[in-house]
Amino acid sequence: MDDYSPDNVGSIRQTHHEYFQNEDPSQGQSHPKRSIDISKWGKSDSFHGHDQRSQKKVTVKDRDKLKRMQKGNPDSMLPPLAQRSVDFVPKNHMKKKSKGKHGRTNQNEGEEIYGKTKQAHISMPKATNLCNASVKKHKSETAMASKTASVIDKDALADFIRKAKITQRECRLYTPKDTGDDCQCGRDKKWHDTKQPQKYDSGIWDMKTHTLETPCKSFGEIKFEGFGNETANRPYIRVDPKTNLECLWTVMTKHWKLHSPRLLISITGGAKRFNPTPEHQEIFKRVLMNAATTTDAWIITGGMATGVMKIVGEAVKDHILTKGTSDKKIVALGIATWGCVANRECLDGSYRGLWPATYRSADLESGYGPEVPLDHNHTHFILVDDGSIKKYGVEIELGAKLEKFITKQINTGVAELQSVDLPMVKIVVEGGVNTMKTVSESVAADIPVLVLQGSGRAADFISYGYKLSEEKDIKEKGFHEKLKKKAENIFEWEEQDKKEQIEDCVKQLEDVLVKKGLITVFNLNEADRKDIDTAILDALLKAKKSNSEAQLSLALAWNRSDIAREKIITNDKRKQWKKKEDFLYHAMFIALVQNKVDFVKLFVDCGVSFNKFLSIKTLWNLYACSLLNRSDSSAHLLRQLIMYIKQSWRAYLCCRQPDNFRPKTDLLKSVGKIIVHLLRDESMNVYSNKKFMVEDENSELKWLPGNHKKKNKAEEDTGDFEQPEKELFLWAILFNREDMARMLWKKSINHIAGALVACALLKRLASKADDNEELELKAKLLEHSEKYEDLATAVLGQCYRKDKQSAHQLVVRQLNNYGRTTLFTLAEANELMKFMGHTCCQTKLNLIWKGQMAANTPSLQILISIIFPILIPLIKFSSDQAQDEVEEQPKDKGNRKNMVSPKDEDQKAKASSRSKIHQDKHDKQWLYNIEKFTDETSHSVNLCCAFYYFYTAPITVFIINTISYLVFLAIFTYFVLTDLYPGKPSVLEYITWGWSVTLLIEEFRQVAARDQRSIKFKIHSWFSSIWNKFDLVMYLLFLVSVITRGALSEDQFTWARIIYSITLALCYLRFMQVFFVEKHIGPKVIIIKNMIVDLVFFMMIFTIFLLSFGVAYQANLYPNSEPNWYLLKSVVYMPFWQLYGELFLDNMEGKTQDDCIKNETLWRAQGGQGRCPADNALVPLLGAIYLVLTNILLINLLIAMFSYTFQKVQVQSENVWRFYRFSLVHEYYDRPFLCPPFIIFIHLYRLFRYVCHKLGCVSSKSCNEFRLELDNEEDCCLTLIEKAELEEYLSSTQRQELESVEKKVTTTHERLKEVIDDLDHIRKSIKLLSRQNEKVTAATLLRPVDVQTDVKNDTRGKMQMHQNEPESQVEEMLQILKQILRNQKRNIHTSHLEITDISLSTDA
């Protein structure tokens, strides 16, 4: 740094003197005024408090003061631990992240910067070390702060600028121009006289020798006033062209808190002469902001309010106004020359900055000269100062270096193998000769350039040369001359050295065209059918043409799978990509984490194997990376569930907060516990084994191959999971990634089961989200859940229409991949009413309900047969066991007589569970007659079998148990009403006790027979039924009544009678479950149940009114009452019965009755009973108000609640009834055929068989119509049927979508685009043929001299005619066809809008 001039020492001394007078807000202390005698500043200690020339040191107090300021609050300078961007992170971030424990970065980095100083004198660290350390810490934490910018820490920014030695410049040596007295810096002599400069006679002004570096004091925020629209304050800073780029980067990222870009868009072009048409201007604004917002880009311009820079600012403003986007989410960085900024004096402040610096439109001159105001719509400004004024181009060098520096600081992608430098593109809009130089330098530096054709001058000149180079070779004759002629016409030239300037311009374009692969031309006239973001990506892909991995990384970062499929992973390149499978696996992992479904499909099509891709460690890493995404609400919900599950009871009871979430080795086991917690079934824990414990806890955003490379080929094909698609599907469901889950669901097997599991998980997650008041997440989860229930129902319906018997087997097939459960069990446990209400489920339930009897057997006939067993032979029976024999019989008879002989139980169980997949789909179940005596050759049902089939059918068991229960109620009622005395119980009471014990044992058996593994979830499943809750209360009351009956004395026996009577009332109410069998009465029972819930809420509200007015009654009618339990009864007694019409008017009016007591001593002796009411006029008024509120308001509220509940249930009453019917059918199918109390014998028999089975004496296999166990071959066949019907359903759905009107409009619009592209290709082909014809014509015209002249002319004319005629005709035809297509496109677009309006109005 050069020495400071003595003329500036005074101002510097004064500034530092003011600095020490200021109050330090961070310390909250006021510092006394102190002076520091600094006479001169040396070169090496310009910012030191110790002056080597004067040998005057700072006082001890001053030194202590500055030390306190240095150590003050160093944490305020540190960047907040912001959330890392998933798409883009700082370079080397992944490498540094893995160094710390658990993937954390070292929080102590950079303490040498912000720690305490140990120097005796006041000194500061060197700028380079400070910036390097600061950037190092910043990179290790995050590339940027949060995308939502926060308030700038003013003191931290000022301290950083001071410590980093960011400077600005001023001219210190007066160097006059050749003409005039002004200095070559642009200022007049008068200004220099005030600075007392030294004369300099060299005549050449240079920034290094003629300027003085001074501490930066022009920074802070600009407040624009009077510019038409109100904007937020804009951060700015004035810097030296030689400023350390790392320090400048720290200012932008740490202090300005700019979000991380995924692209740099540098716009160059016309500054003053750019006057586009309104149409082109609007198109440019739209496509620019579309590119910036879709790619999360930074826009870098010159920042002035003129030319293309002003239009960019207007584009930012229009986007904010129309889209409602915060301007803090858009970065428009203006890098301008300080000396060319109009009214820059208002931006020059103190060493603490200006907060804000007011920049008024009124202070500007009316006409812009060499100085131009800043554009108020830009969001941030860097003002480059070299000490001169009114000289453009000062910022070019620093801007170019800063752009290159930024591209090296940030990487695209999240894995090291896919990291490429931050992409950058330079957009050329109009421009002059200087723009040609800028483009030439950019292309030389391998920066892709996007030229907006139609914007004018330089952009059109480059576009012209680019298209000309496609038609002709650059070295071909005439090419250079055409460019010269075009340049002469398109630019304005000074007559002096005009030819040399044109040659230089053409030479620059030719240099650019040598690397024309870096040039992309975007026609503004075609912006309606091609987006600029696609053009930008095309330009970047051209720059990375030799690196296919970098191209794929860019396409993946921008989520442009269409471009990746069309230009990167094409069909002819698939074999090459298969050799790079490791890179594809890394890309696959990133696509999964970032939820890029189209890329996952592309990689699967390219040959990525899920078996090889998904290892246990990869799955662990996938969950870890997804859970660390702080912006995902589903991930936040799962983190809370994991912490809840892992929290111990001790910590819970002590109200200890759980630790912050961090992926640990048992993450997969925690995920399995979450699934169990949500589905309430221990058998669904798919990650319970120890092999799912991962040793390494460091999560990395890349594919982890696991142990695949160590396995042989056969094991590699199998992988760590039998069905990796299912594991990924569960992952996508838990994180509510709808499109990803749908794609993985299609790739997996057991689609109906997967859809039901997904529906159940999403419903339970929605319930958890509702508990956390995450209403938006809850709505999304419920919507997603309904889609999967619809999918499961639709696929089952497709299977049922194709093959009814296979569909029936699907709903009861045991699913080994989902905890050995069934579709019936999943639907019943998670209340999937729509699925359970499907015809397939109901017909299967009906078959099970009737047992082996014919499905159309009337219930009345069964009831009569129970009463009169002699009528059983009149019932027709069906049998699946004889189906194989039926297929062998001739099918010409309508009524078959086949014989089913009774076999041993194991054979019957095996026969009943045998799969019928390969049978003829038109075969039906046959009906069999009953014969008393049969042999092996006759075809009938044995009489014994008939009785066995009849009495073991669930409907028969239900009817018999209902009759038995009625008998139980009769006995119970009889002894309660007539034979309940103290002392020894009667015989009927003993019978009732025994009967109740058998019923209770049956309830215990139902709990033990539940499908869940653990006793906890068995009890939870049993308790989920409202009738089982009712049973629990009923049996507890019965037990209490029995205990009180024997424990209480004769005087207290009334309590036993009361409890007995309440228990009997509950037993009568329990009989309502019987009504579930009937289709019309069953829904009414459900309505009553829901209305009871409404009634409970109503009673809570009514209790408030009851107590409020009851207390008012009591206080005014019976003041100073005796405190006892009778007082509580008196408070609620009168208002409660007033609700039903008993008004108590005499009491309310204070009328005394003959038997009431007025003497206080007497009524106090009786506890307040029989007291006469007091006369109070307020009480009747209170009563009137109470009756209005209760009888009119609350009663009508209750009626409205009941009406709503009735309508809600009535609309779906049939589905509700069908759902609850399943539990009834399942209960009585599994129930022993003997009714209570004789059921105890069946329980003893089953207990005996269970003991024998444990001893190995008897096999435990039995027939279960609700659980069908198939061998591998049969299960595979059934899976193939399900897969085929899924494909059929998806294809039919797709056909329906294609037939919709809106889809047709969209398809036609896309076809029009393709037709226009084809026409452009035809035009290029015609032009190519024309050039070939020109060559042929030229060769034909060079005939030997002996050819006659007339023949020569005739041939030449014909050739030219044949050459020009097709081209002109085709050109005319193309124009007409394009016009027709545009009109048709406009009409289709109008129709599309009308259809949208109609659909919206229909929804409304």
TrEMBL record:
<dbReference type="InterPro" id="IPR005821">
    <property type="entry name" value="Ion_trans_dom"/>
</dbReference>
<keyword id="KW-1133">Transmembrane helix</keyword>
<feature type="transmembrane region" description="Helical">
    <location>
        <begin position="1092"/>
        <end position="1115"/>
    </location>
</feature>
<feature type="compositionally biased region" description="Basic and acidic residues">
    <location>
        <begin position="34"/>
        <end position="67"/>
    </location>
</feature>
<dbReference type="GO" id="GO:0005886">
    <property type="term" value="C:plasma membrane"/>
</dbReference>
<feature type="transmembrane region" description="Helical">
    <location>
        <begin position="1032"/>
        <end position="1048"/>
    </location>
</feature>
<feature type="transmembrane region" description="Helical">
    <location>
        <begin position="948"/>
        <end position="977"/>
    </location>
</feature>
<dbReference type="Pfam" id="PF25508">
    <property type="entry name" value="TRPM2"/>
</dbReference>
<feature type="domain" description="TRPM SLOG">
    <location>
        <begin position="235"/>
        <end position="503"/>
    </location>
</feature>
<feature type="transmembrane region" description="Helical">
    <location>
        <begin position="1184"/>
        <end position="1207"/>
    </location>
</feature>
<feature type="transmembrane region" description="Helical">
    <location>
        <begin position="1054"/>
        <end position="1071"/>
    </location>
</feature>
<dbReference type="InterPro" id="IPR057366">
    <property type="entry name" value="TRPM-like"/>
</dbReference>
<dbReference type="InterPro" id="IPR050927">
    <property type="entry name" value="TRPM"/>
</dbReference>
<feature type="domain" description="TRPM-like">
    <location>
        <begin position="575"/>
        <end position="838"/>
    </location>
</feature>
<keyword id="KW-0813">Transport</keyword>
<feature type="region of interest" description="Disordered">
    <location>
        <begin position="885"/>
        <end position="918"/>
    </location>
</feature>
<keyword id="KW-0472">Membrane</keyword>
<protein>
    <recommendedName>
        <fullName>Transient receptor potential cation channel subfamily M member 2</fullName>
    </recommendedName>
</protein>
<dbReference type="GO" id="GO:0099604">
    <property type="term" value="F:ligand-gated calcium channel activity"/>
</dbReference>
<feature type="compositionally biased region" description="Basic residues">
    <location>
        <begin position="92"/>
        <end position="104"/>
    </location>
</feature>
<keyword id="KW-0812">Transmembrane</keyword>
<keyword id="KW-0406">Ion transport</keyword>
<feature type="domain" description="Ion transport">
    <location>
        <begin position="960"/>
        <end position="1213"/>
    </location>
</feature>
<dbReference type="Pfam" id="PF00520">
    <property type="entry name" value="Ion_trans"/>
</dbReference>
<keyword id="KW-0407">Ion channel</keyword>
<dbReference type="Pfam" id="PF18139">
    <property type="entry name" value="LSDAT_euk"/>
</dbReference>
<feature type="region of interest" description="Disordered">
    <location>
        <begin position="1"/>
        <end position="108"/>
    </location>
</feature>
<dbReference type="InterPro" id="IPR041491">
    <property type="entry name" value="TRPM_SLOG"/>
</dbReference>
